[in-house]
Amino acid sequence: MVNLSMPTISPLPFGFALLLAAMVSSGLGDPAGAALPNVVVIYADDLGYGDLSCQNAESKIRTPNLDRLASEGTRFTDAHSSSGICTPSRYALLTGRYHWRKLHGIVGSWGASVIAPERLTLPEMLRSRGYRTACIGKWHLGFDWSSIRKPNAKMIGKGKRKTWPADAFNWEQPIPDGPLAHGFDYYFGDDVPNFPPYAWIENDRVLEPPTVPYRPSPMPSEGAPEGRAGPMVAGWQQDAVMPRLTEKVVEWIADQRGRDEPFFLYWPWTSPHAPIVPTADWLGKSQAGPFGDFVMQSDAHAGRLLDALYAHGLADNTLVIFTADNGPERYAFERLRSFDHSSSGPLRGLKRDIWEGGHRVPMIVRWPGEVAAGAVSDGLMSQIDIMATLAGIVGADLPAGAAEDSHDQQRLWRGGPSARGSLVHNTYADKYALRAGPWLLINAPSGSHSRMPAWFAEMRGYETELSEPLLFNLDSDLGQRTGLSEEQPQRAAELKSRLEETRAQGEVRPLATF
User: Which of 54, 80, 86, 449 is catalytic?
Assistant: First the structure.
């Protein structure tokens, strides 16, 4: 079984700690007059806490490029996405607020934007400081597809296969309310890899109109195709998506060489989300089946970006953040039985769950000269905090009502304590959890959404009947096996009250640690 330890913050050299203290007291940390760092956010899709070899000594998947990133930066072992599914986590990352203040579910096929026009986003904040911004990859936050739909168009199909046909849209027209409407100067991607339209979008236009109905190609090597019905470009190959996105990323990075303005690149991967379609040259490379092969291929794509930064002299002044939108998909159950690989590591739960495995995700921050290399931190960190942290780094003001749940985590990134004492976990509307220090309370009979097989529960030693509310001490029980509400009723009551207060109020900063 997996033995994935949770080390404390690696100590900084004494001289470096003194230097940091002197910088803070003298104001040398002020970005005014200093070259602003370039920023790259790599956002993996459905990557588990235990999938990276740098994070899990028993991983059956080798990830040398992300291991290299960790060796050049700090790895955070208590980092969290806002939700256990993808649209809400992306919304929270780019707005600095809990997703549940706005939505719980994903944007479906042909769905509208979930970002209000007046909502300040991370790229808009960085543009205010002179950054060029780009998003290359999976958007999944909605477009205004209705604006290019023909007035008399009719849907086809029935039930879950009901969709718009290819001739329902004026494909030559610009598609409003996508990435360009929310702070990005450039966009390239296929929006969502398993949703229509199966086509490339550059900025706000489809490059080639889709003309045929979706048909999965190639069939996935593991799991289901999971493609939603709708129009597709003739000859569309889903295993060509990540390679094409990577080529665009490398081209875009090369174009930044020699420019005076800093840049922000948001690279939301389409992998290793289903369909699990590693290219032929990666099949069989891992010891964790096709999913493991897909992760290894994705790691190689990350290496292409890192190599491009070095090749163009951009590595020293580029802050790179790597993380993921939620835990692994349900195929992870069988992966453990077939390959003895735990995508969730020691954590309970998968994608969609509010168990730790649904939202505790890998996170690495690399920033030469500012964030310690090769360090490991167990400080509490949320992806919501990225916006306030970057605002502090680049000297941007966050107006009242913007990024209201985001905490500036510069101290944590530089080896100090976390600015966050508490964190709310949520995926669906009826289940919430509150983290406060080592304590975690779940206000539901279970943290599960995905059904756990009986053999899996027995293998991992999970209790299936726990007293409500569910209370755990993660310092001693990271796997959430033993409920403590009967032993600690007062603590459970306090946390439940705090959860209700946090959900009701419009701002959460600051929260006290229990």
Answer: 86
Neighbouring C-beta atoms of residue 218, cutoff 10 Å: 15
Asked whether 182 and 124 are in contact (CB, 8 A), the reply is yes
Strand partners, 206: 201
Tell me the residue type at 54.
C
- The CA distance from 414 to 198, in Å, is 42
Entry field: residues in the chain:
514
Q: Are strands 381-382 and 132-138 parallel, antiparallel or unpaired?
A: unpaired
Cα 97 to Cα 31: distance, rounded to the nearest angstrom: 24
What pLDDT is recorded for position 14?
Answer: 31
Q: How far is CA 452 from the centre of its chain?
A: 23
Annotated active-site residue 54? The verdict is: no
Strands laid side by side in the 38-44 sheet: 205-206, 201-202, 186-191, 132-138, 263-268, 38-44, 318-324, 363-366, 74-76, 375-377
Task: Give the per-residue pLDDT at 467.
Answer: 81
Nearest alpha-carbon partner for 40 in 222, 253, 266: 266
Under a CB-based contact definition with an 8 Å cutoff, are residues 51 and 62 in contact?
no
Catalytic choice (54, 99, 135, 140): 140
Residue found under tokens 């900084």: 12
Reduced to 3 states (helix: H, G, I; strand: E, B; else coil), residue 203 is coil
Burial class (CB in 10 A: 0-12, 13-18, 19+), 246: buried
Report field, pTM of the whole predicted structure over 0.90: yes
pLDDT at 506: 56
Contact between residue 45 and residue 138 where contact means Cβ atoms under 8 Å apart: yes
Say whether the peptide bond before residue 272 is cis (omega within 30 degrees of 0): yes
Helices (H) and strands (E) in the chain, counts: 12, 18
Per-residue confidence (pLDDT) for residue 29, from 0 to 100:
43
Contact status, residue 102 vs residue 114, Cβ threshold 8 Å:
yes
Q: Are 207 and 191 in contact (CB under 8 A)?
A: no
What averages of pLDDT result for each successive group of 10 residues across the chain (514 residues)? 36 35 37 80 98 97 98 98 98 97 97 98 98 98 98 94 96 98 98 97 98 97 95 98 98 96 98 98 98 98 98 98 98 96 97 98 98 98 98 96 96 97 94 97 93 91 84 97 94 95 69 39
pLDDT score recorded for residue 463? 79
Annotation says 140 is catalytic? yes
Residue position matching structure tokens 């849907």: 155
